[in-house]
Description:
Elements: H1 2-60, H2 65-76, H3 81-88, E1 90-92, E2 95-98, H4 100-113, H5 115-118, E3 122-125, E4 130-137, E5 156-163, E6 165-174, H6 175-178, H7 183-207, H8 218-221, E7 224-225, E8 251-252, H9 254-270, E9 278-282, H10 284-291, E10 309-310, E11 313-317, E12 325-327, E13 330-340, E14 344-348, E15 352-357, E16 361-364, E17 367-370, H11 371-374, E18 376-389, E19 395-401, E20 409-410
Parallel strand pairs: 3-14, 7-19, 8-20, 9-11
Antiparallel strand pairs: 1-2, 2-15, 4-5, 6-18, 9-13, 10-11, 12-13, 13-19, 14-18, 15-18, 16-17
Helix pairs in contact: 1-2, 1-3, 1-4, 1-7, 2-3, 4-7
Amino acid sequence: MEVNKMELEELRKLAQDTVKETIDPLLQEKENEISKMIKRDKEAEDKSLIFGRMIRALVNGKGDPERAIYFAKKNWGEDDAVIKALAAGTPEAGGFLVAPEYYESVMTALRATAVVRRMGAVVMPVTSGVLNIPTMSGATATYVGENSDITVQSPTFGQIALTFKKLAALVPISNDLLRYAAYDVDALVRDDIVNAIAEREDLAFIRGDGTNNQPKGIRTWTDWVTAESPATEDTDNDNLVWATAAGTDNALTIAEITRDLGRLILLLRANKVKFIRPGWIISPRVEYALSTLRDSNGNWAFPEMKQGLLLNYPFAVSEQIPENLTVNSITNCTEVYLVDFSEALIIDSGTLEVQVSDVATYSSSGTVYSAFSQDQTIIRVIARHDFGMRRKEAAAVLEKVEWGKSGITIS
């Protein structure tokens, strides 16, 4: 009986050892996978925040990259990614040029913020500052019989010339904030700069008229800017009459709104736009009006908006579309844009020029402030880019939009 107990203990130990030999490698492998995941997440976080940390290093180095590297090494260690980023960049006259490989981390944040980029505009890196894009229309293919001549259709050739426009952003940041060494501060610095660039860029890419050194935006590029409301007939066959505003007695119907949106779709379709990446850009007021609109039975008029779609095409909301426009005596109206963004082009230098100063002055709402007296640092960021439409027929604008305007009812 005693022998049996010993054998039982040996069997138990053998079983435990066998299980341990089998399980331990699996547990170690799992721990390694978790460690790698944590490291990847940390690296992704560092890459996302590297621009903000680079700015803080430059601020503390008074704009001198060598002093910035010394500050980074002292505070974040010899192997910190920002040191490589600072070493890869190059000093410029009056600023520091962020290297293209680190500029991409800024673009990741910018694409999430800037509406035109987010909706799928094609971004083309250009170093020369000029890009000539050929266009062609009118070429056709024809079925022919045996021994028959092929009908020749001469295509029409054109060219779009895009040249860099310089976008300069001034961002004042509290020195108290810059003294903290936390990830949240890196993100805040990065986001302040990215938001400043995104807001002004979207205003130009959507409504810029090409004057005062700014790009021509979608509205200026397209021929399809509408003119009458709500949805009058195209009596002169120029396709330039579809717009929307208040109907009789300041009342609109869901049917009129749907019809006007649908006619923008039809306008692009009629001009053989491919709808590869179609999307709407609307103002916040329009989003609110349409997303909360119900029919007489209490059903949502546009339920697909909960999934980010409007009439089954993606939409984005931009505060850069004004809601206080006056068109033909109609006040406080706004616009709706429909664009195939595969035909929208952005040429981009692929780098940013950064300069910092704690003694500069800046103007806000007509008041001049001194960074020195405010204990702030002014960060100046310069980006170079331009915008164009390969096919001007690939965008249409609905104007005189009063949806959501005070005093206008929709039923």
